[in-house]
């Protein structure tokens, strides 16, 4: 009996069952192949990440103590002399990043709302330009700020670093905020407008509150990125051993202190770099966890 004759004698149910079995075997093979590829990709990502984090933790946790966090640095005179702490760098990081965030919040809100409400060709060009800023090398922002500030005033100031970090915080936060606003269901917006509310009131009472968790997620991610940047602030903030709490004076941040210490001839300063690196990892991890919490709440609220 030929194959064609055998198929002719099969019932439609048997034909469907045999076809589904062949299709199921093919899908199972592809599923196993994709799972193997994903497992390999996960290992490729996880192994370097584990190596970096374990190295920082093992080498840095010895340095983390109360004196290290609260004392100002002491210039060493020998390999065994104390070097103090990094209170100046912690205060400078909070000062420079804090000013940048305070300036970035209103700018981000204004730009995001304007791009959301203005839907024309110019708005699309501006939005594409902001997305390009997200991927630009951070050092170019520091060079630009140094060219228009330090080259003119011939002095270093903490708020110059905040201006450089603005070019990092604002684009990242703006891209995330625009995506958060656009994720608000159109039915909610139409309902508000249908009740006679002005567009500005709909934005303040409906759109922004609904998108708030995702907006905060974007801000936390942008801040965590700005905290670890060295290049933008290296050329403009200078360096101090004692914090001044004055944005018009020089300052030191954790990344710039690591940059200064790592090439030192004293082993104690090199060891302090690992402690500062671990401190930065903890701070960045804190902001990333916060962003995940707000994002999870947003997904839960939206069903």
Question: What does the model show?
Answer:
With 303 residues, the protein is mostly helical. The protein has 2 domains: 13-60; 67-73 and 82-301, MetI-like fold, CATH 1.10.3720. The chain is 77% helix and 0% strand. The chain is built from 13 helices and no strands. Helix 4 runs parallel beside helix 8 and helix 4 (87-117) runs antiparallel to helix 10 (199-227). The longest helix is centred in the first third of the chain and has 49 residues, at 12-60. The N and C termini lie far apart (58 Å). The mean pLDDT is 85.
Tell me what portion of residues adopts beta-strand conformation. under 5%
Distance between the termini: 58 Å
Helix count, per DSSP?
Answer: 13
**Largest sheet composition:** none
Rg (CA only): 27 Å
**Low-pLDDT sequence parts:** none
Per CATH, the class of the largest domain reads Mainly Alpha
Name the overall outline.
globular
CATH architecture designation of the largest domain? Orthogonal Bundle
- Output the CATH homologous superfamily of the largest domain: MetI-like
H/E element order: HHHHHHHHHHHHH
How many independent structural domains? Answer: 2
- SS-based class: mainly alpha
Query: The CATH topology of the largest domain is what?
Result: MetI-like fold
The averaged pLDDT comes out at 85
């Amino acid at each position: 009996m030929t194959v064609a004759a055998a198929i002719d004698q099969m019932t439609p149910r048997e034909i469907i069952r045999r076809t589904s079995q062949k299709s199921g075997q093919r899908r199972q093979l592809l599923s196993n192949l994709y799972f193997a590829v994903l497992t390999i990709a996960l290992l490729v990502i996880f192994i370097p990440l584990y190596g970096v984090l374990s190295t920082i933790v093992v080498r840095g946790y010895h340095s983390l103590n109360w004196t290290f966090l609260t004392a100002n640095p002491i210039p060493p005179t020998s390999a065994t002399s104390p070097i103090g702490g990094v209170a100046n760098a912690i205060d400078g990081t909070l000062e420079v990043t804090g000013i940048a965030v305070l300036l970035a919040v209103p700018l981000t809100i204004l730009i995001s709302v304007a791009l959301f409400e203005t839907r024309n060709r110019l708005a699309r060009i501006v939005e594409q330009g902001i997305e390009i800023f997200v991927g630009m090398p951070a050092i170019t922002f520091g060079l630009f700020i140094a060219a228009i500030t330090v080259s003119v005033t011939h002095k270093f100031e903490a708020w110059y670093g905040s201006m450089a970090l603005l070019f990092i915080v604002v684009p990242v936060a703006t891209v995330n905020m625009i995506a958060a606003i656009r994720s608000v269901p159109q039915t909610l917006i139409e309902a508000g407008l249908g009740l006679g509310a002005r567009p500005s009131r709909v934005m303040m009472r409906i759109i922004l509150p609904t998108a708030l968790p995702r907006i905060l997620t974007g801000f936390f991610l942008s801040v965590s990125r700005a905290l670890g940047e060295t290049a933008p602030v290296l050329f403009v903030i200078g360096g101090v051993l004692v914090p001044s709490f004055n944005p018009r004076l020089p300052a030191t941040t954790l990344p710039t202190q690591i940059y200064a210490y790592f090439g030192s001839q004293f082993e104690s300063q090199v060891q302090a770099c690992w402690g500062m690196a671990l401190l930065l990892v903890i701070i960045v991890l804190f902001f990333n966890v916060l962003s995940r919490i707000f994002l999870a709440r947003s997904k839960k609220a939206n069903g």
